[in-house]
Amino acid sequence: MTTLRLASQIITAAFLPALLTACSSTQRVAPVTPAAGVSSPQMPVSNKPAIGHFETALDLLQNGQPQQAEVELRASLKESPDNRAARSLMSQIETPLNKLFPAENFSIELSKDESLSSLAKLYLGDPLQFYALARYNGIPVPAKVNTGQIIKIPRTPTAIAAQQARDVALGSKAAPVLVVEPKPKPDLHKVAEREYKKGLVAFQRQDLDAAIAAWDKVLTIDPNYKDAQLNRAQALRLKENLKKLQH
C-alpha cells in the first residue's frame, strides 16, 4: 500500500507542470493578425477647425448667395444673440436699399488691390458693409469686381470726409508741377529802334503803308519819338499827294 501511494505521487509530480501549461495556453487569446493586403480601418483625423456659421455666411455673401447666408446668420445669432457682426450682415440683407444709404453719391474708379470690403472700410467705416455697397451698385457677386470699375459711394458724412482726405493724399502724390520761368520782357527802346529802321527801309522802297505802320508801332511804344513823328507825317503827306495825282 505504501509502495502504490509513492508511485502515484511520483506520476502526479511528473505530469502536473505539463497539465498546467496546457490549461494556460488554452485560456490565452491569440492576437488577430489581419490578412495580407487588408489594412485595419482608422478613424479620419482632421487638423482643420470646424467653420462656424458666421464665417460660412460671410463667404456665401462674398459669392453672391444671400439666401443661404441668411440661414447661416440665423444659426449664428441663435448661438450668439449678441453677435453684432452677424446682425450687421443680416440688416444688409433685409433692409430695403433706399433705407440703407442716401441716393446722392459720388463715383470712384477701383484701383489695383482694392475690393468692395476695402472701399467699405475707407468710405463707410466698416469693411463688413461690403454687401450693402454691392447692393447699392447692383453688383450680384461682391467678390467679382475689376480694376478700373466705377463704384458709386453713397454721400454719407463719413464718405465725404474720406473722399476729401483721399483727394488731399492723391494731390500730394501727384507729379511735381513744372514751373515755367516767365520770358524776360523785351527792351522797348530796342523794339522802337528796330521798328523805326523797318519804316525807313519801307519808305525807301516807296511802300508808304508799311512805313507808316512801322512808325505807328514806334509811336505806340514811345509817343515822343521825334524822328518817327516827322517821317510818319511826311509819309502821310506823300501818300495824300499820290492819291490826288491818281485822280
How would you summarize what this structure contains?
The chain has about 250 residues and is mainly α. About 60% of the residues lie in helices and about 5% in strands. The longest helix has 26 residues, at about 1-25.
Report on the architecture of this protein:
The protein has 247 residues and is mainly α. It folds into three domains: 53-94, no CATH class; 96-172, Membrane-bound Lytic Murein Transglycosylase D, Chain A (Roll), CATH 3.10.350; 189-246, Serine Threonine Protein Phosphatase 5, Tetratricopeptide repeat, CATH 1.25.40. 61% of the residues lie in helices and 4% in strands. It has helices spanning 2-27, 53-62, 66-79, 84-94, 97-100, 116-124, 130-136, 157-173, 188-204, 208-221, 226-246, and strands spanning 105-109, 150-154. Strands 1-2 form a two-stranded antiparallel ribbon. Helix 2 (53-62) runs antiparallel to helix 3 (66-79), helix 3 runs antiparallel to helix 4 and helix 10 (208-221) packs antiparallel against helix 11 (226-246). The longest helix is centred in the N-terminal third of the chain and has 26 residues, at 2-27. The radius of gyration is 52 Å and the shape is rod-shaped. Residues 10-32, 34-41 and 43-49 have low confidence and may be disordered.
